[in-house]
Fold these 3 entries.
Entry 1:
Amino acid sequence: MTTQTARTPGPAGGPTTGAAATRSAARPRKRGAVDRAPWILVSPFLALFLLTFILPILVAIVQSFTKVTRAGLFGEEGVTSTFAWFENYRLVLEDGNFVASIWRMLLFGIVQVPVMIVAATVLALLLESASARWPGFFRATFFLPYGIPGVIATILWSFLYVPGLSPIIDVSEMLFGYTPDFLGAGTVLWSIANIVTWTYAGYNMLIIVAQLKAIPSELYEAARVDGAGPWRTATSIQLPLIRPALVLTTVFSIIGTLQLFAEPQLLKSVSPAIDSQYTPNLSAYTTAFAYNDYNLAAAQSVLIALVAFALSFLFLRLTNRSSR
Amino acid sequence: MGLAGGAAAALAGCATPGTTSVNTQPVVPAAAAGEKITLTYWAWLKDLQKVADIWNAKNPNVQVEVSWIPGGNDGGYQKMYSALAAGGGPDLGQVEMRSIPEFMLVNGLVDLRRYGIDEHADRFDETLWSQVGFADGVYGIPQDSGPVGMYYRPDLYEQAGVPVPTTWTQWAEVAPAIRELGVFIDAFALDDASIFGGHAMQAGATWLRSTDDGWVIDMADEITLDVARFFDKAIDDDLVTTSANPFSPGWYAAAADDKIASLVQASWGDALLESVSGAEGKWRVAPAPRWEHGYGSSFIGGSTAAVLANSKHPKEAMEFAVWMTTSPEGVDAMIEHSGIGWSPARDYIGAAREEPSEFFGGQRYNTEVFQPATQQQNPDWQWWPITQQTFNILGDGFRGKATGGTLVDAVVAAEQRTIEVFRQKGLTIRKADR
């Protein structure tokens, strides 16, 4: 030990104090370097993470508690920013349209998320079943819609929804004499659900397929030995074992539902039923960038985040409890 | 430490943007003689650079660069607001007439009277000029606009055996005969209240006025309510379609299928109408139907070239904008390259617009209909700091029509809501005495 420290080239200092000084300093310095290394390595990530993620969130929270008051016709007689406590939150919660948009998204999620997860699960099970033909081809095909950006997908679908352009409406009129209204006040939500399901079912399917592939083949063999058919294998082996994937995709979908934006924003131009506050995110976007009220928009955004957080947490709690 | 310090500084720098005014600071001096400067102009007009190039060739020291942005609230304003909030942005920005007060609210515009705009005032249409002036200042140079007329299909009116209406009363009388052919006389946009605003403007309403002691709102006045009742009835009687807004894909499909007999719209609708497939030669233009009171026409749409707050060369930017919007070469170039709406120049509508139109069957519709329409405008109309929000509130209310509401209720509610939003912002507003 002593020889080691003695050999350690000390810093420029007197030889008398050098040994004692290096002895106490060497160890922490070495450990210090080891301690620092991970921080140095993650610092590029951390810097970006702080600047582009944490900081904007903090700014949004600060802004949501700020109120700007203007005097005169346009604020030419003075503009003051004050701490507003929960004034912005009160205004947001009093805004019937914003609250309605959150309820609308809950209704949307209660219907669309289960439909999509069931569809994704069924597709995944079919692809992974022993009798599947060309699973690679179909997996790619089912996944393909996810490769089309949401904006393009919505434009494509809007041409199938607009009367006068839509072949679906034409065929329905010809065969059944019935004119479906895809863009009416009561139906457009489900037309959006259809686009979202179409886009994301394949993506969720892929996550489930990955989990299915991770099931050890011994389990299948054991099931087969026990005389389990494909149905029994699915319900007793595969479904219980892909539970984590189902939980994961459901949580993602719940968060995604509350963040619905591109589809209604684009369908707005063809459907008079979609207003400027149709979804919570559309509401926040309009408030911030069309009305220039960043403070109110910040309060709306914080509330959206809180609701998404609460719902995801609730869902995880429920699934955890039932698994115990 | 450095990071945390930077974060704290950034946080401190994040005061709500747009809370200081450029118009209380000293006037920016003109560029020195011989100094070469470059102006930037953000606009959504197409090929505007070609117009600027004409100016650039003649003004080697003041070069103008145009950047294309998405139209207004489709992203262009968002971009400008963000740039202003960050302390930057172009010298000039395309800002709609109705959005000028909104930009003023974030202190985004330069008062051009401080740079001598008054000497150019008589080059512009009077009504449009009155719409860019607020609180003793001038905040934008009118660039294009849209006097309203009525586009119509003579063949469909003939088929229905009814005359082309000159009043709204007559319009309502002939509409059922047209409906019997399976054709709508027009479309009513439930979600775009700006057209309804145009009707009210024509009927003589003035929704908001700026006075010395704050804003005065008179949105739910009898005139506007009458207009609302009129269209409530037209929608209830199924005379107009509400499912296809003018110039939406559904509307184009219906128009191409001969299901739309007429369209009360601004002059810039002509270019859009030309993209209806197979429409060549089928349409004509007539003056807009009149209400029993009010004016012969209204302005729908219209934009300005506004000098934005962070411009380093406001005076030169203003001079370029005046040249572009009022000189014959500027106007002609903007019509040819950018397809602008109606020119705001007082004495010059553009050489191309004096010619007979092939699309409208040889009609000289610009000189026949739209030029007189600019002389029959509501001079009192003013835009207000939350125009877009009021229109959205109104549009959101109008959508209720599909589920049993009425336009009248929506107007009354929108007035109330507009007052609330004004007060939330701290602005003074009161209801007009009526």
Entry 2:
Amino acid sequence: MRDFIDPAVISRLAGLAMDARQPMIGSVSGRHRSPTRGSSLEFSEYRKYVPGDDTRRLDWRAWGRSDRFYIKEYEADTNLRLTLIVDVSGSMNYGINGSQDQGKTKLDYARSIAGTLAYLAAAQGDAVGLYSAGEKFQREIPPKRSPAHLKFVLDELALLKGEGETGLPTALHQAAEKIAQRALVVIISDLFMEPEELRSCFQHLRFRKHDVAVFHLLEQSEIDFEFDRPVKFVDLEGAAPLLVDPTTIAKQYRQAVQTYLADLKKIVRDSAVDYHRVSIEEHYAEPLTRFLLARKR
Amino acid sequence: MNFLQPAMLLALPLIALPILIHLINQNRYKTMPWAATMFLLKAKRMARGMARLRYILLMLARMLAVAGLIFAVSRPMSGGWLGLTSSNSPEVTIVVLDRSVSMEEQNPQTSESKRSTALKKLTEMLQNTESNTKLVLFDSAYAKPLEISSVAELEALPAASATATTTDLPALMQNVVEYIETNETGRTDVWICSDLRQNDWNPTAGRWETVRRQLSVREGLRLFLLTYPDVAKDNIAVSVSGVHRRESLGGADLVMDIMLTRSTPTETAENVELTIIIDGARSRLNLELTGGQLVRKGHAIPLDKEAREGWGRVELPRDSNLSDNVYRFVYAEPAVRKTVIVSDDEDAAEMFRVAASTAADRSLVYEAEILPSASANAIPWEDAAMIVWQAPIPDGLLAKQLEDFVTSGRSVMFFPPKTPGANNIFNAAWTEWRTPDEGEQFPFKPWRTDADLLANALSGAPLPVGQVQCYRACNLDVKLATSLWQLENGMPLLARAGTDRGAAYFCSTLPTTAESNLVSNGITFYVMTQRALARGAGALGIARQAESGTIPEAITSKWTALDDVSQQTYVSHRPISAGLYRATDKLYAMNRPLSEDNAAVISDDTLDQVLTGLEFTRINDKVGGAMQLASEVWRTFLMLMILALLAEALLCVPDQVPKKKSLEPAT
């Protein structure tokens, strides 16, 4: 177990299955619905017999009642491809109260969420992949379902390092193209970019029939902006530092944040994205619990 | 602006303290890594205008607060614009106080007069400025310097109280100038407190030129005019003239001319109720006043036949100026208006006799006696009201007797003899007879119409002086005389010599046909003779009307008051107050000069002309007004500071921070 994954959280969440919100196309049998008919125990529908159908699937009782041949169809169960996209831009190095200490940054938080989800997915037989998005698409691990692959994913997670400007929109578009089959795409980021840029990303992913979930990581001070004396803000993504008297722009800052959040909320609603705004001050188990419970069938 | 503690102003650079603190704070920033830079940039963009404005206002409020505090402790004066501060205080402050009757005009709400308002404000100003200055009062009644030891005494000084006098401001200012020059007063403030009445200022007076010339070269002299030019609309003044006793069929009447003068003429008819008190008995008289003036001539009031002499007064109801609401009079059997004509020219003497003995008022007795110059020592000096002297100017005892005659208040009219002598009297002497250089008659300059022998009639109509023709005139060598009528070449035709009392007139031509047409155009000759006679007769009868300020205290102090009001007047104030008195053998009614009833105020242009070349500060005040000339206004600055601090606090109020549930899960 890695230090960014809490076993207690794993054990607490183990009882909660991670379900897809839409049928998945998997390579093997699993616990997720498939768009095709299959041999699961879940009845799907009747349809008229056509020559060539397997006669073992004829419903003889229906023939007895109606003197017609009907085929009884069942849902197909398949596995899930969990694709984790983690933002590794410099802004993810921002931690609680501005701290950049190990274990307190957004990236650490993202690492914990991604690791836990990977572990849970692997435990229920789903494939897990990892994409890290910095200034460019940095790391790309396609989903696989072997335990060795999970170890590989977790190793990569442990090595993630936040730096440079965000390249998340580009990364999301690339991911939408590269992930061939339906997948649960989980994006973990602070999403510090124009909401309209995200709209096209989400729509692209949705167009590719992916189930998109977003963990939006924020720190409380980024929302409240409570400072009482001049501060020189050093941008974590490398932009020029800004010397600001916070009292003069606090109102406008909060207004900008609220507008951004409102716009983002509208975009995720329009794009049917499973959106979770997360304060990194709360334990990562809480948003995960909310995420899993919301997906429970 | 000026301050009582100007040293505190050295702290003014502290106004920059907020900016300094701001700059220091700017350099004491903390550095912080930040992720949400996009919001910072947006906020900065949004706040660019408002934030800067708010910041500027904040700085201004803080600087204003500091400035307010510094100014407050510097004890600013509201009269700072006058330069009235202890640091700038003059060595001598001269108060020129107009104590004329018109200065007693009151504000009905406060009952304060113009004079008391001016005194009060000057006192407050001098006390507030804490100036250590020598205070000298020149009041119009005494026109002498009075050094005052304490500013607080100024208001209560008898020498600053109300009088029934008029003001000769040019003469008063002349005295002020002399005082300044004599005492070398150094830095001097001169405060003239006046209501700018035309008759008080006499803008055409020659003395102004001297005053201007002498004041303009004084260094360190500042001239302030505390003026009250507003004229009350409701003020009416009353006066009586020609008061005399007249025998009638049933007994006797007291005859008088009553005059009402309204300060602001209006066509609205106003019913005025007069109270006439004669020897303590009251009667009422209703008059309807329209326009600016009403004259009720020959108003007769029945008298007890036995009442040969007495006193009385005419009173008006209360109005803006109480001092012109009462006019006092005394009456007695009129004296015979006797004229003695000393002349060796029978024709001229006869003409003088006719003009002097023809009665202008039939209730009076007129007599005229002709004496040749050789019998001049037989002149009945005690009985004569006027002497017409058409003979060589005498010298020795006769000259002395003539001067005493004039000094006693009676009149002498000098006409040129056929052969002028070398003597002079009243600094005047006849020199030689002249004829016009061109034509048959001398051309004239305009004559003096406002006063004296050739003044316009009561109705305002001028005398027909312009119709007079003069063919011969005797040159008059005269000093210190008032010219009433001049020939075009500047030679005086009619002049009055300067005397303390009485009048000595010099007429340069004769009424005879060879010299002039004064007889054929008899009105001018008759009127000037009768006016001179009336003036002389005024000093002859038992009952005398006198203007306040014309009789010295040495005389008035021996008088006995006739009524209660006069009884209450201080003896020292009798010369300048109105009152009714009995001298040994005479009755005196002292009243304000009638010129005080003229409410004309000099215009701003005229004032500028009068004070041409002098720098002066004029403060137009209202009677009873609350405006202070100078007062401490630190409270205002303290209030300003508090307001600035409040504004600063409002600008600093942080915006309401949204509750921290803003990061509640949003799915």
Entry 3:
Amino acid sequence: MITRRKFLKNTIAGIAGLALPAAGAEIVSPRKLFAARNDTISGPNVRWAFLVDTYKCVGCGLCVKACKLENEVPYDANVTRTWVERYVLTKDGRIHADSPKGARDGFTTSKIDLGEGRFHDIKKEDIDKAFFVPKLCNQCENPPCVQVCPVGATYQTADGVVLVDRKWCIGCGYCIMACPYGVRFFHPVYHVAEKCTFCYHRITKGLKTACVQACPFGARMVGNIKDPNDPVSRIIRTERVSVLKDEYGTRPQVYYLGISREVI
Amino acid sequence: MYVHGEAWTIKELFVLPNEYIYWSIQIVMYPFMTGLVAGAFVLSSLYHVFGIKQLKEMARFALVFSFALLPVAMLPLQMHLQQPQRGIEVFMTPHFTSAIAAFGIVFSTYGAIVASEIWFVYRKHLVRTALALRNRANKRISEKIQSLIFNALTLGVYDISERALHQDEKAVKVLAGIGIPVACFLHGYAGFIFGSVKANALWMTPLMPVIFIMSAIVSGIALCMLTYIVVMEIRKFLAARKNAARLTHQTKEEIKGIEINVIKMTAKYLLFFLIFAISLELLDLIFRGYTAVKTWDILRSVIYGKDFTDIFILQYGVGNLLPFILFLLPGLTVRRTLIGVILVLFGVFMMRWNVVIGGQSFSLTFAGFMHYHLPIIPDSIETFKEGLFGALLVFATPFVLFWILNKVFPVFGIEESH
Amino acid sequence: MKSHVWRPAFVVLALIVLILIVRAFYVSKDFGIWERGYMYGFHRKSNEDEWKAFTVKYKSAEYCKDCHSDKYSSIMQTPHAVIQCENCHGPALDHPSDPPKLTVDKRRELCLRCHYPLPYPTSGRANIRGIDPEKHNPGIECVMCHNPHKPSLEGMK
């Protein structure tokens, strides 16, 4: 009796003794904590970035359609990885904006969607300026969504893309709350956090993202910001570009041409 | 297939396609219940640490109740998860840059402290019961189980000598002392979860954790008073019925005397923390209006427009001002206290509601609104979990747990172990 | 120290050990701190490969042009050259093996994505010719009269 108890005791202590330091070290290893904080300069020479030319966008929404089909986001669900917004600024100084169904079907009416089934028609003569703004995940350099994930289910890859581990996400929604751009949502089928991946399965094979490929007008471009000869990289360096909501310190990596101050 | 949030969100004007009210009633319940835990514990510690004798009767009660509330602080979080079965991952791969990851650690630490404190407070009772049960001959099955439970709960220590009990007393004091900052931290970080979300204009303020702690203590004291009154009424009722019975040691009048004294004392602390909580909340509001940064336009239309009734009538008026008057009027009675504490609890609940739901009632575009419609009829798992019945389940659980705990750790009618 | 006061601490220690043991079995071996540090790079490494292995569905006109060279070269002469085949024909996937046949979207709404007139100054949309769908032959598919591969008026059927 005593020997058996002793045996059990030793076994448990043995397993614990082996598992404890290994597991403990895994949780907090100072060396790993402080290493690789700024490895973007010294690290791999790929950093994906995106460029949107809002002058070129016509609001056809073919990018949204392609994205949903390519990335298996249920077509009729009212969530989307990318969407297009319409801004109409009228002579009375008002801003009218909408994005019905994320512009999955484009904009086929001049009426602005006010929600709750109400619409507001704007006459051609009243318009000062009007334009479309495609939106997608900014793949921030300092992604607040990743910072707040309690379990390490969302993360940034070495080449700067923020992904979600569908097998590990607990579905708390904190990342959705933390994103200032509203790009995250719960996947209607898998019920885990879902977001634009810059079509990671495509760009890592040398393909364009589905939305870039689908755009007939070249309003969307994806490229490697670390490659000086990359067209996207060149435009970002040599032209006047802006980003969205930089006051949040997120350092977004989707750059815009021709954006107006009304765009949020 | 369903889009989470679509069942209860109505969008108005320019709202982004992926925006819904993702954090709904359970996330209102979460800080509310956590607040009750923290508040109850702080109340019990006022006696154990600072030796406020008048709270003696309330202290043990508050401690056990705090323990009963503890699992319930976790329950709403668990219920709002889209993958509840993976909740354990917070312990497995905690990511400490997230305020929620701290939950696993802080919550467990706090749980360990409360459990240990209860163990020390009740050790004498546990040992006596365990020994009595062990020595009883011809035990029935239920008694055998009872015996097993009590013997396990002694953790193998049967020493109830004067010296040992003195050590218990010291341990309780130390634990209660550590417990106060941990309880405040537990709830303060619940405030941090919201206050640190920079994307949310209403939530982001460094005052949020402090506001949460103060209102937590308020609600915790209020709930303890409420439950205390209810329990005392039942005891009075029992005392009146079986005056001569062996179950009760006190007469109805004795109980009544104790009751009103304890209540008056506790009410003072309630008022003190209430004033503190309101001051902070008003400071926050005034500061936002005065600095009027970019987001103030949309916040103002929410605070003074869409949510005016919820904030100024229900929260500040019915939930704060009214009980304030009730408590301050001379000649406090039990009935008036009862109404007062219920209103205070309601006020704190509305404060959580206005923070959690209010913070999601406007769009990231600052040009649109979202309206929350609490699902009442549970026609799916989703609308049950995050609907009225899910919330009621969370609210009812601590009372059931308290009833069970009371069988092992009787709150009333045992000798003091220290 | 032989005092009974430490008993609860032992229970707590036992629980911590238990959690760490469970962790050793439950958590994937490649879960850890990767390139982007603890704040942004704490994850299961193999998940990156899972995302890379996601199926590519849109293959681009390059994929179509060898077999459908006639269609490809004809549309290339027109303003519709900028439109990818798959925008109307649907994602190719592994066509022709899977799926053997693609479904063309012939609805009016598809054409209206660009050809509903929205004369928005500063937007490319203003330069595209449009029709009022309520007045221009309502109820009839555009392809009844217009050849999308030859959209000019000469290409009218």
